[in-house]
Design goal:
heterodimer, A: 316 residues, mainly alpha, 78% helix, B: 306 residues, Rossmann fold, four-stranded antiparallel sheet
Chain lengths: 316, 306
């Protein structure tokens, strides 16, 4: 336990001294938040609320990037092997990575929720327990994915290539960037195999529809299963030595981390509600949008001289 | 040996086709400084890393502080301290934080301030690891190796890559540990390091120990007591010089001839007579006791740093 605390404290400390961390984990997520809220949602509270799930999802998913890079650089520089002569274990190294990542990501997500509430005046933050659980399990499971990536790649270059390869589908197919319903139905079906999709849609349901954890068992359960599997795999594949190479066969292990989502994707494609729920949410958003527009037009007709703040917001 | 802290018996290790360690055996007593001396690639680091529990041996029996590094590495790691080769700490970690971090891994801890003082790092306590010089990094590595007041300290090439002055600084630190009766196992490819710091030395070559003993024993046993280095006006064959009365061995080294002899006066007389007969001349002559370097050359036929 003390090993874990000592290592976690070190990781947090190092991250706070790292400019890359500052940019990728604070500036960029908040940048996305303002881009989504002020530009894409045009500061319309209801739209900001709808996009809050995707924004938080991006932040949470980004975890794997920094974690894999840090662990690989520790291994390449021979820092890990120094820890290997101490009583610290592989589990200490892995779990402290996840804890530190959680401690570093959580404040940004809280900041985003507070900004949404008090700057963009969203109608509500939904079911807070669900939001908290999804953020927590999302951050830990995506962090754990980073640990698997660090374990299956031999050099920093390989790590970055794999990160890119995973990042792009995660953000484009999950509904975190392009609204899910805008994707072709084939792509939607593919997206149902991605953990990110369940994270993002779960967050939307929690925030927009106020679903409690009991209604989000699918997202919470699948992400938890994925977390346990990735953590187990990374502990099996963990390497202390820079020159230790991973066998080609072991790289296939990484495929195993996809198993819960393969099964879930098949099930969801056949019986699932994720796409349907998303369609309902979008329809409701469009209806609200139309209603608001109509209300405004009416307002304008009744009082043509009044300065119209909201309308100008919508134009830009 | 009474109470050996460390026992190694017929240790072997291979990496694919490379047989890095081929049946190494030795024991280290409590309070002793034991050195593994040999050229790069001799198998020293593989041996020491097996003792530290970093690598698994392929064969043989190892006991460190009563633990088997392969099956009891958790217990073992609480009792040992190590300064590794090719390692680092995070650049943005401060000296005092590094000591704190490693102290966190052990129940038995030494006072950090004492360690800082002893290793000359008091002024650097808030400096980042990345800002330290090579010597300072090595001193920090040794301070960290001692943070749990270990029963055995492993120092793998503690002065490799450091300039001579910094190397002497590290020697002073190790000598202090030796006075404190710390049990130390160190590897080196510097003869003077082994000679100066170690109570006992094992000479390792091609994964085997080819000689073992105190530096004095090694020098006496293998090189025949006296070494005479001569410079001649004209070349002579090693073969002829070797046959002179009183001379046991002769090697040409850098244009000089190094004669090993048991009875120096007799050797000098016969050498001078021989040179007169050949109308050759003696330019210079130097008598010394053999160094470990001579021992190494004699045992392996090579210089240590070829």
């Amino acid at each position: 336990m003390t090993n874990l605390l000592a290592l976690t404290r070190m990781r947090v400390r190092l991250a706070l001294r790292n400019k890359m961390f500052f940019f990728f984990s604070i500036v960029m997520p908040l940048g996305f938040f303002f881009l989504y809220s002020a530009v894409f949602a045009k500061s319309v509270p209801q739209k900001v609320q709808y996009l809050l799930g995707p924004v938080l999802g991006l932040n949470v998913m980004g975890s794997f990037w920094g974690l894999s890079a840090t662990l690989v650089s520790f291994r390449e520089q021979g820092i890990l092997r120094r820890f290997h002569v101490t009583p610290a274990t592989a589990t200490d190294m892995l779990v402290s990575s996840i804890l530190a990542n959680y401690a570093l990501t959580f404040p940004t997500t809280i900041t985003e929720l507070l900004l949404a509430k008090f700057v963009f005046h969203v109608p509500g933050l939904g079911d807070l327990l669900s939001v908290f659980l999804l953020i927590s399990i999302g951050t830990t499971s995506f962090g754990s994915l980073g640990l698997v990536i660090a374990s299956v790649t031999n050099t920093m270059q390989e790590t970055q290539v794999l990160n890119q390869l995973l990042w792009l589908p995660l953000i484009f197919l999950s509904g975190a960037t392009i609204p899910f319903t805008y994707l072709s139905s084939l792509v939607q079906q593919i997206a149902l195999f991605l953990p990110a999709t369940y994270l993002v849609s779960g967050l939307k349901r929690a925030i927009v529809d106020g679903h409690g954890p009991e209604k989000l068992l699918l997202a919470l359960g699948s992400l938890t299963a994925w977390f346990l599997l990735t953590l187990f795999l990374s502990s099996q594949l963990f390497r202390w030595e820079p020159e230790a190479r991973i066998s080609k066969k072991a790289k296939l292990y990484v495929v195993a981390t996809a198993i819960p989502f393969l099964l879930l994707g098949l099930w969801e494609n056949k019986y699932g509600r994720v796409i349907a729920e998303e369609k309902v949410a979008i329809k409701r958003l469009e209806q609200a949008d139309r209603a608001e527009r109509r209300a405004k037009q009416k307002d304008k007709q009744q009082n043509p001289d009044a300065p119209d703040q909201d309308d100008s917001d919508q134009e830009h | 040996m009474a109470n050996p802290v460390l026992q190694v018996e017929n240790l072997t290790k291979r990496y694919g086709d490379v047989h890095a360690v081929r049946g190494i055996s030795f024991e280290v007593a409590e309070g002793e400084v034991f050195g593994l001396l040999g050229p790069n690639g001799a198998g020293k680091t593989s041996t020491i890393e097996i003792l530290e529990g970093l690598r698994d041996a392929d064969g043989g029996r190892v006991s460190v502080c009563g633990f088997d590094p392969k099956t009891q590495s958790g217990e073992l790691k609480r009792e040992i301290g190590a300064a590794l080769q090719s390692t680092a700490l995070p650049e943005k970690l401060k000296v005092i934080e590094a000591l704190d971090l490693f102290a966190g891994f052990y129940q038995r801890r030494r006072n950090k301030e004492d360690l800082l003082k002893r290793f000359g790092l008091v002024e650097k306590r808030t400096a980042f690891y990345g800002q330290l010089s090579g010597g300072q990094k090595q001193r920090l590595a040794m301070a960290i190796a001692l943070i749990n007041d270990p029963k055995v300290v492993f120092l793998d090439e503690p002065t490799a890559g450091l300039d001579p002055q910094v190397r002497r600084e590290i020697y002073d630190v190790i000598e202090e540990l030796r006075r404190d009766k710390k049990t130390i196992v160190l590897t080196t490819h510097y003869i003077e390091e082994a000679e100066r710091l170690c109570d006992r030395v094992a000479i390792v070559d091609h994964g085997q120990i080819i000689a073992q003993g105190t530096p004095r024993e090694l020098k006496q046993a293998s090189a025949d007591k006296t070494r005479i280095e001569v410079r001649l006006a004209r070349e002579e064959s090693e073969e002829t010089l070797r046959t002179l009365e009183g001379v046991n061995d002769c090697r040409a080294v850098n244009g000089n001839y190094v004669l090993h002899c048991q009875r120096p006066p007799q050797a000098i007389v016969s050498l001078v007579k021989h040179l007169e007969a050949q109308s050759n001349e003696l330019v210079s002559l130097e008598i010394s006791t053999p160094s470990l370097e001579d021992v190494f050359i004699e045992l392996t036929g090579r210089r240590l740093r070829d």
